[in-house]
Amino acid sequence: MSTEKVLRKSKIIPFLTSLQIDRQVNFNNLISKAKLLKLDGFQLIQWNEEVWEITGGRLLQQSGRNSLSITMNFSYPPKLDGERIGGDWEQLAKALFLLRLHAKQQNLSNQRGFITVVGYIAYFVNQRRASIYDITRYDMERACDEISKDYSESSAYNFHKLAAEFAGHLDANGLCKNYLNYKYSKQKRPESANAVGTKRLDDPDTLVTNERVLAPVVFKVLGQLYQNVPKDHKYRFYILLLTFFACTGRRFSELSLLPDQKIEIDKDDLAYLEYFPRKVSKGNTFTPKKKLHLPSQIVDLLKDVISEIQYLTKDCRDTALEMHRSQDIDGRLLENCPEQMFSKDLERLNISKTILNKNSRLFREGFVFKDEKSGQLYTTIQGLKQYCRHNFNPQSLRAIHIDQFGKSYFLHDLMFLRSYTMSSGKSVAYWLTVECSHSMLTTFLRYIDDLVAEYVGLEDIPEFTTHDFRHTLNTMLDEGGLSDLLQTEWFGRSNPQDTKAYQHTSPEKKALIIREQLKNGEAGGILAEQILNLPIGIQDAVLQARIQAVHDVGTGLCIHNFSQLPCERHLQCSADCKDYVWVKDDKQRLEEQKRILAITVQAQEAVQRQKLSNRMKKSLDWELHNNKKINVLSKQLKDNGVIEFDPKAYLEELSNV
I want to staple 639 with a disulfide (CB 3.0 to 4.6 A). Which of 6, 130, 437, 584 is the partner? Predict the structure, then answer.
């Protein structure tokens, strides 16, 4: 038997289009290619500096704050003394940082984590006085072992994946003599990362939901805050924003950048909003606008919420429009102002007179003067403009969205707008409108317990994040029977596998739910027919023995227990399989059932035509298989309330669409 290590298929695409035998030539070409990149926001960086200040572009927009700049430090992690990396290792770290950002648009924390991993690997390679050319799997293992000691399980797991990526870049671009094909030998997905566990079905904890699923009290308290907090309260805006999260389950980046609009009704009489699916980790990439169809129970509530938000943001939107017109701050507050602005003039404009103090920024910049006659301090119109522009970010005036039709959406086109706040929220720069940032909402959540105590009468509520609403809604829809594909579509995901991470209904709980539905006659299938013919006293025993697991198979559900033996009828679920069941009146699966039935009928007609022709005949197995599927799927359509169904007309309708 061969004992050779099986090579992993690399997911890394080379940055270099042609590789040379000389590894140093490849290294130099990689550095040169990175230096040629002209990325937005990198105009001020000097290649040889240890700290890079980035003033715009993707990293700045996805940092979750209204920041004017961020920094990237090319130094060893603090746990390794934090000194500058230096040498070829620093050159490589900078090059890969730029090339990764250009190719994949990773977010800020991912990029900083990558530099951290490079620092660990460089530290251990340098210990044995070796170079990048000589790096081995042993060096990688030592670095990952140290990372495991220095960081939590979840953080270390992410760093271990980045270490494998770094090794992949070395292999793909021909930078070292050894082909690493590396993955950390002790890499293990942590329990906190949606790992799947098992419980006995009679365990009381089987019915306990995951901690990412919010307790009902959170929704109850939020509803009472919505009803009781006055409409002129300074935190009313955030109550409305949280209500939006609770109703729609969108990502923060999708709601905070939601276009200003009213709820529309489509041709099928369904209410919807338009939004841009957007993940923070994807940066500021432009994505097509999509429709978010709304459950009928929340439509009236959201109409009221949107109307109130539009009223609360009226002044901010007016300011944003003026900023867009002038490509500057809203300077209308400076109109008809005297050239010399004393403290009384500042107070009239609701600007703190402390900007004239000797320790103020305006004083240090030379814009504060002393009146010789009165001895009072004043600033000029130019000085006041300088003060107002201090926190102005020209990047905020660029297009935030560009939809598939070429329409641009700017700051004033967003629904959730705020005036910029200074001095930890004590003063408001009403001449400067910004989008609602994650840090604003985080700051509000620090004070929510006080609001709950005042307007609800509870001392506190369980802690939660906006993303917990997404987990909770996804779990509720999953338990309600919505198929995985429809969950993926409604939540705006591109990969159905990602939906599994948001389904916190345990496999054991799903099994208990389908048991009850079969027992109550709410589900169909061979097992359902068998149960109806059994004495009531032994129905539970049969269901407990037969249903140990539940799997979604598109048109229905599979109850085969794969932990005991593999399935002998792979992909023949709807062909009269004894382990195939379906929930009656399951409208979410109706379209998939129609589609599969129509295709099966078409295939059966092709088989029958071939039987009548002079061509060589095929086995009858295929014809029998199709008949079984047609019978089962027809039963499912009947259980779904479909009495008459024309497969040919259905396929023609699909082809026309």
Answer: 584
